[in-house]
Specification:
The complex is a heterodimer of chains A (about 120) and B (about 110). Chain A is globular. In chain A, the strands form two sheets. In chain A, strands 2, 4, 5, 6, 9, 10 and 11 form a seven-stranded mixed β-sheet that branches. In chain A, strands 1-3-8-7 form a four-stranded antiparallel β-sheet, with no helix packed on it. In chain A, a hairpin with a 3-residue loop joins strand 4 and strand 5. Chain A has no helices and eleven strands. Chain A is mainly β and about 120 residues long. The relative contact order of chain A is 0.33. In chain A, about 0% of the residues lie in helices and about 50% in strands. Chain A starts with a strand and ends with a strand. Chain B is mainly beta and about 110 residues long. The mean pLDDT of chain B is about 90. Chain B starts with a strand and ends with a strand. In chain B, strand 7 and strand 8 form a beta hairpin. Classes of the chains: A mainly beta (about 120), B mainly beta (about 110). The interface between A and B is medium-sized, with 27 and 23 residues.
């Protein structure tokens, strides 16, 4: 089954404790992206990757890191989480065909609470 | 001004009603227009997309785009309780980046 998986689905942690949220897709997609979703603010892009070893900042990158060492995986790293990073996080992937619309497929989400 | 503005709702309608969901966007470079549906505790899923002005129909759903006024709409006919979800409009240009609206929460009651 074609899918995007994220782990963990739920996480409660404390300020300053490094954490990683994993994302993996099995569709051989070039493009991968992380979003956070907050009430009243919608989905905002954190980081994205056009392909292996190619990453770039989205609209709200502060406090986050990513890496893309393999095509299928795109982990999100919070080196020193703070309470304002409490949110619902989504990973998404798509093919990357220039000049056409490319549907983004979303993972199930990770609900993160930072105390 | 946000690049995409969406009526926040929430909307609560009886089963069988016609639902209208609306967004406006500001960037003329946007060429693709999408509606994603997000059920509670799930990730968004693509419902419809279009890249031209006019209407696109898929069953009970009609997506409408008016590029001259930068207005995007989704109409749901004969709404069902299973349509209860949050609906997100999104736009994009020739890159892979999508800009999302804040979402409209819809509840259809029997």
């Amino acid at each position: 089954e074609a899918q995007v998986t994220q782990n963990p689905r739920y996480l409660i942690t404390v300020t300053g404790k490094k954490l990683t949220v994993t994302c993996s897709q099995n569709m051989n997609h070039e493009y991968m992206s992380w979003y956070r979703q907050d009430p009243g603010l919608g989905l905002r892009q954190i980081y994205y990757s056009m392909n292996v070893e190619v990453t770039d900042k989205g609209d709200v990158p502060e406090g986050y890191k990513v890496s893309r060492k393999e095509k299928r995986n795109f982990p999100l790293i919070l080196e020193s989480p703070s309470p304002n990073q409490t949110s619902l996080y989504f990973c998404a992937s798509s093919v990357s065909l220039a000049g056409s619309y490319n549907e983004q497929f979303f993972g199930p989400g990770t609900r993160l609470t930072v105390l | 001004q946000k690049e995409v503005e969406q009526d926040p709702g929430p909307l609560s309608v009886p089963e069988g009603a016609i639902v209208s969901l609306n967004c406006t966007y500001s960037n003329s470079a946007f060429q693709y227009f999408m509606w994603y549906r997000q059920y509670s505790r799930k990730g968004p899923e693509l419902l419809m997309y279009t890249y031209s002005s006019g209407n696109k129909e898929d069953g009970r759903f009609t997506a409408q785009v008016d590029k001259s006024s930068k207005y995007i709409s989704l109409f749901i006919r004969d709404s069902q309780p299973s349509d209860s979800a949050t609906y997100l409009c999104a736009t994009g240009d020739n890159t892979d980046k999508l800009i999302f609206g804040t979402g409209t929460r819809l509840q259809v009651f029997p």
